[in-house]
Amino acid sequence: MINPFDFPGVGVISFGVDRIEKMADDLADLEEKGTAVVVISDAGVTRAGILDRVRRILKESGRDVAVFADLEGEPRGESVDEAATIVRRCENPCVVGLGGGSALDVAKLAAVIAGDDRPAEDYALCAHPLPKPVLKRIMIPTTAGTGSEVTRNSIFINREGRKVWAWGQELLPDRVILDPRLTTSLPAHLTAASGLDALVHAIEACTSQQRNPLSDTLALHAIRLGKQHLLTAIEKPGDLTARSGMLLASTLAGLAFGTTGTAAAHSIGHALATIAGIPHGRAVAIALDAILGWNAEASPEAFSAVAEALGAHKRAEDAAPAFRALIQQTGIDRSLAGEEIDPETLATLMLAEENRPMLDNNARKITATDALELARRTVSL
Ligand SMILES: [Fe+2]
User: Whole-angstrom Cα distance, residue 120 to residue 124?
Assistant: First the structure.
């Protein structure tokens, strides 16, 4: 039986090398009133000169520009609140998210919660419904990995240091600009980690409990693109064909898991971030490496398609070694041995409220006993 599904509508997605130069046209199309723009970005984008370029494009089009670009690393709820304060100070601004997944997550949530006066934390884990969006939003990724530009969630760290999420149709932007040139300054290790995150999204989407024919189609092509282009993007950062392939892989994977959700590798990955601060892309790649073979036993048809998309024989048991080989080729350190993570603590957190939905969406049902076994496998790679 095909799972029932909702495929969330995203506004216009525009792709092209140097497409960013036309963003004033996008703003003109969206504007109903006002000419202010709030750009929410991050330190890496500032260092790469991309923020200055966007500021120039916006100024030349006669717009007032306010910038929040203090983000570095994983965002905290307070960062979302600071960004929302800047948004509230402007009159009917368009909110532009420009950066990696963290910047886009902050931009998506700040633009929406600016319509009310609650802090971001009040919306964590759907504790309160999100306000209906009144501001126009454009998301412009500068990394290829999270797919945040097309997903309905925003992830941030709460006051207790736990990685939590806000979720809702309200978080989808009006426009997405995919400009592969913006990703060419991303260092090799971040290209590798974010690219693997995209692959994990795709693999989890097309094997999860909530998979459906639309998400399968998108996810399997994302895996093919990732297999084809990730290593070149790492080795030749200026290769626009490889960068285009990865950026599209990331967005396709985002569209896929935006409807299916992610699964156990993300439950483990979020728990690893909370316990030991392991960066997201590396954490989910290690987690999927640890559990892929175990998962494949339960769903041969889905995982044989994954194996084939990864360039291996169309056999479920070939998916795990193909994914492991790709991780090794990227140069990402697969071992958590030096981190001294207690598997029981990890398993407890995998089953916690914020990570449980991902665990329950996994290809293979996971009991508490299984969670401990998978935690052991993850920390002992
Ligand atoms: Fe992810």
Answer: 7
Q: How many CB atoms lie within 10 A of CB 174?
A: 18
Tell me the C-alpha to C-alpha distance, in Å, between residue 239 and each of 16, 40, 176, 263: 14, 27, 22, 32
Distances in Å between the Cα of 127 and the Cα atoms of 28, 155, 248, 303 are 35, 14, 33, 35
Instruction: Flag whether pLDDT at 266 surpasses 80.
Output: yes
* 337 CA from centroid of ligand 1 (Å): 22
List pLDDT tens digits, range 139-169. Answer: 999 999 999 999 999 999 999 988 899 999 9
Q: pLDDT of 57-75, one tens digit each? A: 999 999 999 999 988 888 9
- Compute the distance between CA of residue 228 and CA of residue 232 in angstroms, rounded to an integer: 8
Nearest to 118 by CA among 161, 127, 173, 354: 127
Query: What are 60's two structure tokens?
Result: 């030349």
The rounded Å distance from CA 46 to ligand 1 centre is 23
Distance 198 CA to ligand 1 centre (A): 7
Measured in angstroms, how far is the CA atom of residue 57 from the centroid of ligand 1?
31
Q: How far is it, in rounded angstroms, from Cα 242 to Cα 237?
A: 8
207, 295 Cβ separation under 8 angstroms: yes
User: What stretches of the chain adopt beta strand conformation (E)?
Assistant: 12-15, 36-42, 64-71, 94-99, 137-141, 153-157, 163-167, 175-178
Separation of CA 90 and ligand 1 centre (Å): 32
**What's the 63 CA to ligand 1 centre distance in angstroms?**
34
Q: Are strands 36-42 and 64-71 parallel, antiparallel or unpaired?
A: parallel
Contacts of 249 (CB under 8 A, 6+ apart): 144, 195, 198, 199, 202, 221, 222, 223, 225, 226, 229, 230
